[in-house]
Structure formats: structure tokens, C-alpha cells
Design brief:
43% helix; single chain; Rossmann fold; 23% strand; 12 helices; seven-stranded mixed sheet; 257 residues; binds S-adenosylmethionine; alpha/beta
Length: 257
Amino acid sequence: MTATSHSTRAHSFNAAAAQYAANRPSYPSALFDAIEDLAGRPLEGARVGDIGAGTGIATALLHARGADVIAVEPGDGMAAQLHCTLPRVPLVRGDGNALPLATDSVDFLTYAQAWHWTDPARSVPEAQRVLRPGGALALWWNTGPADVPWLSEQADRVRDHFGGEYKNQQGASDIRSETAFRGAPAAPAHAKRVVRWSRTVPLDTHLANIGSHSIFLVQGEGATNAFLAREREHLLEVFPDGMVEEVYDVLLIVATP
Ligand SMILES: C[S@@+](CC[C@H](N)C(=O)[O-])C[C@H]1O[C@@H](n2cnc3c(N)ncnc32)[C@H](O)[C@@H]1O
């Protein structure tokens, strides 16, 4: 992906913030148990910076877990949506490459589906600067497991639709612990865990969820709608009652920089 298309895609969510908030999946409570386990400290009472907070899906769960959370988000549309949903959670505009947080000020930095938009050469040193001694950097992504046949067939159709462009994309599903810190001055020590969960949603929600991914947002409405119309036909064969069981593997990386 070129620098321009990376930046265009990183900002593409803002025009679709309401669609994002209404249709994107959340995260299971087992994920937060795993974060605490790998970090060796509880979220309750911890000072947490949730970076690339978007519409606040993860921010809300961290807040509900008892964390003292501050949301950081670069985009206008996403920040406005977050403020609407979580008016009492502090929100600061900024990004992971230049955190608007004081040195030694947080116990956790969390990036839910957002780390891949940062430049690790800058975001790792920034994490090291703002984390208190013993603090943890937690990165996670909802990814589609390859062992679920309809999901792997759908992934093939997406790949065919985008061709070479898909191959070059730096999307969440391409991120693995081996590549997450590529380009960082010194990759921090980290541990990885996978948490499987699922949700059952109407087909329309599933299709809108797919359409809220940056690769679809930047290709334009016509081509996206054509893909989603074909996808509806495929999925009605698998889920004739129109309810789709989306299965996710949350890939979690917890680093102690
Ligand atoms: C896929 S959304 C994830 C939102 C939210 N954390 C969630 O779990 O739903 C990615 C978010 O990263 C933000 N973003 C883009 N560039 C960023 C950067 N350099 N640092 C931090 N966040 C960034 C986008 O504006 C967007 O809100």
C-alpha cells in the first residue's frame, strides 16, 4: 500500500462513523481477562489510554471494567460519534505517532484494531514514553478464522474482488505478532493470545459490517454495493433464515516496553 492510500484509508472511517458504530463487532470479556493475565495487573482502577478509540467500542468496555480511561482519536467523524455515545469519558484528539499524553502517565495503552495505522518507528517510542514503569501496551484485532468454511470462502471472494490491491493492503488480518513492531527501533518484549468468540446478527448488519472496512470505504459506493449484493446471495445459501453467525479470533498482543 502506498503512503497516500495508507493515509486515505486511515481517515476513511470518519465519513462512515455511524455505520461503523452500528455494525462493527464488539469484544468479549474473555479478552479483557487475557489482557489482565498477560499484563499481570487489573484494569479496574488503572489509568488507561485507549488510542485510535474510534466510536468508542473498546473504550466503553474498558470504562465498564472500572478503568479510568481516556480516549485518543485523530478523526473528526469518529471522535464526534464517540463523544455522543460516551459523553463523560475524556476524549483528546491526537494519534499514536505523537500521543497527546504526559510522560509516565498511564498504566495501559490499548489499541483496538488501530495499531496498524501507526508508524511503529514512532508509536513504540511514544508508548515507552507515556507508560508508567511496569505498564503494558495491548494491541488487538478481531480476525476471521480460516477454519470456519463460510468465512474462508468469503475471504477468497474479497481477495478475488480486490486482486493485487488486497495483497498489498496492510489490514488488521495481516498483522501478526511477528510483524506488529516491524520498523520499531527495538521491538518490545511481548506475548500473544487468541480469544475465539462469536455473535449472531441479521444479514444486513453483517453486510454493513463488511462495508465499514477501509478497503471497501475507499473503493466507492458502486463497487462496494455490487460486491455486497452478490455476497447477500452467497450468504442466504449458508444462512437461509437471514441470521449470520460471525466467528472471530481476537488476536491479542501484550507488550511490556
Ligand atoms: C478500525 S478503527 C478502530 C476503532 C476502535 N478502536 C474500535 O475498536 O472499534 C481504527 C481507528 O484508528 C484511527 N487511526 C487512524 N490513524 C491512526 C493513528 N496513526 N494512530 C491512532 N489511531 C489512528 C482511525 O481514525 C479509527 O478511528
